Amino acid sequence: MTLQIGSLVHKYILAMAGLRLLTVTLAIFLLAGHIGAGDVAVPEKSEDVAAPSYRLLFWLPLSSRSHYIVFKPLLDELARRGHKITLLSSHKDKDLCGKPHVECDTIDSDITQVVSSKDVFSGNQFAMWGESAINTTNHVAGCFLKPHTVTGNPVEKIITPLLKAQTDAYQNKMVQKHIKNETHFDLVLTLGFLPDVGLYLAQHVFKSPICILFPGLRLPTISQAMGNTVNPAILPNPLLSYGPKMDFMQRVINTGMHALISGMSEYFFKPKIEEATKELLGIDHSPDLLGIFNDAAFHIRVSHPVFEDSFPELPNTAWVAGLQTRPAKRIEDDGVRKWLDEAKNGVVYISFGTV
After folding, report:
1. Is residue 307 predicted with pLDDT exceeding 90?
2. For the chain, what is the largest distance between any 2 Cα atoms, rounded to a whole number of angstroms?
3. Where in the sequence is the domain holding 137, given as residue range(s)?
4. 34 in the Ramachandran plot: left (φ > 0), alpha (ψ -120 to 50) or beta?
5. Is 304 in contact with 321 (CB distance < 8 Å)?
């Protein structure tokens, strides 16, 4: 009985994943055809499929393997449908890059340089700052501004690999080729962590609408960029463990967290990134990267309302929980398969993200 229920649940998840994938793909088609329609070229016909073919840039210079895995099915499906994909990532994907209409390149950068699994499991307070911030606002500020057990300022540990990644990405030969040719992309898709030079290139060089990808729960900065209401008095920050019914002190801490994140983004990260971008581009003014980020046309989030609190949201966000779900494969290792088959009470599989 348990196996039958599990099978039904698995089939339901696969069906939902397929539906979500189709929804996201259609959403991208709509974006490319209707958002910034004055800049969107007439789509070309693919040689392999009858459907129109669009040119898409996936700008992922700073991402972890787990983040890439989540959105890989989207890349694979778009490539299968004959769309012309340009991918800049920190992870090699031999299967995707061997497909027609796909060009890829990688840079030596990974978000795991910021926080490693060793930091998390050793109880590092920076890696677990959301949990340690619950007690007092001092903890909230301390998680950003105190070194704790991490060597150096934790904020510097975030900004340093980001600046290196954007420099490497901008100087990449494939990217420079498209900059020189002023290639028009119908859509640029990028992870929504911190704004970088990719946003400037999308808006000012490639003349493209922007789609923000995010592999987790709602963040205030992305909600604001999408035009959604972010009221810390009623909407708990997902980095805290508060439910929808917050008491007065929790509301105070939640508001402090919101102000801290917004302040760090506006007064610390933004000036540093924009100054570095100004030098990188060789221009005489600091580009408004945060402004470009806030002008993003669409947001794809790997989550579902059942995992988050109830809150109003505009229809420019696609919920794609289960996007990374794939059909099950037979376990080739005889020993592991025998061990699983002989488990009288079933097996609980636990994953910490990167698998």
Report:
1. no
2. 69
3. 2-341
4. alpha
5. yes
